[in-house]
């Protein structure tokens, strides 16, 4: 009978309407200064045929309070790092320092136009330069561009650099132009997609039963010729360090190819080992993973591309260089792959990442890596008796388990993930990497303490028990959320991708 | 904890890394700084960016507009900015619903039927639109109108270099500053005609006429907008017949921040929904019939389709899309109209005053929104440098940055931020700095 009750406000436990459903004609939430120049009829400025004639129909009319309440209510429906552990494997959900947010909002940076003359932006350019130097030191790769906006964008940049280098070396023409990019079957989907965008065809390398790159298969593929490069994640997406990395690089180099490393998992290596020392030619970093710039519900990121001296001429332009004590943009790289983004990249993320590096210090960076790996190792240790661990080698910063033991009772990875929500945790990455059936990839990061790790382990073990004793409980999870499992298949069959006013919706 | 997992030292955590690959020294980065030291350092660097403190008439793809205080307040909520991509809908409805509203607002403003959850920025959104046009039409020739932002053109060139797409350039009319009427390059091999409106020189293009020409040969019309505020006043690209509309959304509540993070808007017709790059959020229901939102049509995306995906994009500009959503909802229908109208009025006033200055002229006759080219009696780069040092005003962008054959021209932008007093100071400054 709750429909009889008229509530003054929507309680935060209830769903929030769309803003369009709250709109009231005539309501406003802004005020601009009165126009202080002589006003002309607008059609004297812009001919009538170029003016909007729909009066912005449908755009909401709400007050400032409406907007605040709307978003605050919606926000209560989001899980976030600040609420607790967010163990998404390969996503590196670590704490986002408020100090870094403050730095990014300093008016002298936030208010600076990207096309300012270099002499008007020396401080901003110095930030880019210093971050470049630090990332070059961390990766052991001296050439660097901060222009790419995200990991996949950095990947595309990296493989385009490989394309350009090989074309410059071998000549562009001819049927002998190398076109094959080798990618392990455990790789992120962005790898093959980026390779395709850069004109390569993809050949997949098998993983061994130990979860490492199959060297024999790699040799076989390289012997086939045509190999332009290899895209390798290290530690790989199973959380294992490719201990044969030097041999892998040697095989690819001997075949005339280059080695690209996906830096998504650099949180396992910072301060411990450097890709440049392993024989890697080019890498991208995710500042929004390893260097703690916030994920923001899906972005923005920043995906710097770092490479060897040999590949440096091919990096995107402009490059930020230092001449004497002046910083400037340098466009004179005729072999450059070109520009991958307007302006200089996601600058606000660069400020945050540099602040992260400087507040941690060189020893702090190493300690963070140690803690991240130790935490993953602790989880691996804590869950082995209850969950199937498909690879026996000790993991680095993330560990993969499967649902093999639970499926006997009809409980699958998705169910375990959803049940974890009832225990107050965000689930781990599920069903990735694709080569592991029912994969659960867990990355705690350094931002959780032992107490929370223990709670997580306890929750996972409790779910394992429930799967044995009361599988329905797990299969029907989550139970405590404001909404149940949504019918994603139906959503994809007849997609509704925007709100429409009622009368229009019925005719569409 | 080390002992619990059977180790004696932190060093042993890394036993799987060959010993000769392990660093035996500390990284050569700075020692740890305290909050006091760190802020002092960055504040000091910020003082070396005088460009950020000047009265400015610089636009050219990044614009200063009023940002309501609540925008930064809302995007600073932990629940939004420290969340990941909403892969678990039961505990991510805040993000998902915000994206659904974002998609709706983008459709309303562009006059299109579907929009995605954002791209990196306007330039990469445009490059993705070109790639999509090739997929949709299975044709490989793309014609770019002459007055597209030069950096956007560079980005497209980079993106298409391995896609087998031939990129051609249509000229502009030297009198109107608009794409020239001829467009002889269009033919039945053309996948898309790409136009920016208002274009890089600030001139509004006749998008409807271009759409007609493109459609006549079976090509798509891609419209790119770098000054999204213009959508508050100008006829929407969708209403003009565009097939794909991309825009830089920075004007909607996003600080200049030296070039990013910004947000790319991407919208198209419903029939092309399955060809869209990037994430999409759709409506869905649970068993109780409660409405919610989920990521949908994922079979287009790289994590499922791998090399056959519509794009390699994964991380997008989520939080900036949220800022844009909060901005658009706060300004609302009337606020957008008023802000856009003020931009047009202030720019018209500025242009009129400059054209009255001796030796200065406005070379292009095409209609404009809030930006226009000025031809000065002297070298524009030097003039603007003098203006900055003598009057502490950034007067615009010297076109020689991109067009060495236009040494005396510069691009001026006025928005609702620029008061009449600022505009009058610009006029006085130009008058005195522009003396030959």
Form type of chain B? globular
| N-to-C CA distance of chain B | 76 Å
What is the CATH fold-level name of the largest domain in chain A? Aspartate Aminotransferase, domain 2
Parts with pLDDT < 50 across at least 5 consecutive residues of chain A = none
Rg of chain B (C-alpha, Å): 24 Å
Order of strands across the biggest sheet of chain A? 1-7-6-5-4-2-3
Describe what is shown at a glance.
The complex is a heterodimer of chains A (508) and B (436). Chain A is α/β, with parallel strands linked by helices and 508 residues long.
Molecular structure report:
The complex is a heterodimer of chains A (508) and B (436). Chain A is of the alpha/beta class and 508 residues long. Chain A folds into three domains: 1-77, no CATH class; 100-110 and 117-358, Type I PLP-dependent aspartate aminotransferase-like (Major domain) (Aspartate Aminotransferase, domain 2); 363-490, Aspartate Aminotransferase, domain 1, CATH 3.90.1150. Chain A contains 18 helices and twelve strands. In chain A, the strands form three sheets. In chain A, strands 1-7-6-5-4-2-3 form a seven-stranded mixed beta sheet, with helices on both faces. Chain A has a three-stranded antiparallel beta sheet with strand order 10-12-11, with helices on one face. In chain A, strands 8-9 form a two-stranded antiparallel sheet. In chain A, helix 11 (275-278) links the parallel strand 5 (258-262) and strand 6. The relative contact order of chain A is 0.13. The mean pLDDT of chain A is 94. Chain B is an alpha/beta fold. Chain B folds into two domains: 55-66 and 332-433, Aspartate Aminotransferase, domain 1, CATH 3.90.1150.10; 69-327, 3-Layer(aba) Sandwich (Aspartate Aminotransferase, domain 2), CATH 3.40.640.10. Chain B has eleven helices and 14 strands. In chain B, the strands form four sheets. A seven-stranded mixed beta sheet of chain B has the order 2-8-7-6-5-3-4, sandwiched between helices. In chain B, helix 5 (122-137) crosses helix 6 (150-160). The N and C termini of chain B lie far apart (76 Å). The chains are: A alpha/beta (508), B alpha/beta (436).
